[in-house]
Amino acid sequence: MRDRFMDGNIGPLRGSLALLIVAILAAFALGACNKKPADTGPRYHLEGKVLSVDMHEGTATIDHKAIPGYMDAMTMPYAAKDPKDLAKVSPGDQITADLVEEDGVPLLTNIVVTQKAAINSAPASTPKQ
To answer: In 3-state terms, what secondary structure has residue 20?
Structure first.
């Protein structure tokens, strides 16, 4: 008995291959349905000074200028969309960032330090003897 593949009869193989391709495409389509959509809402530009950073909470308190079309100048805590971004900022740093809303919560993204906090240049005092 000769092998069907050698005879050129690959009909059953062709059907299996087609079924495999359909299954792979369906898996990709279902995976795409579960992804969260990219930021499609408005983005606002924030400029301000970092007053404090809470890495545990993933927030930074920012004293910021007015954000045109969004809010007046004020000081308030903001969560970072990616809390790891807060590792690059310190109290006293001047920053810019984009502000986006997810489910009504303002989040900082694209955080850029425009000026690092001034380091205290005065030497530490030594006690008198």
So the answer is: helix
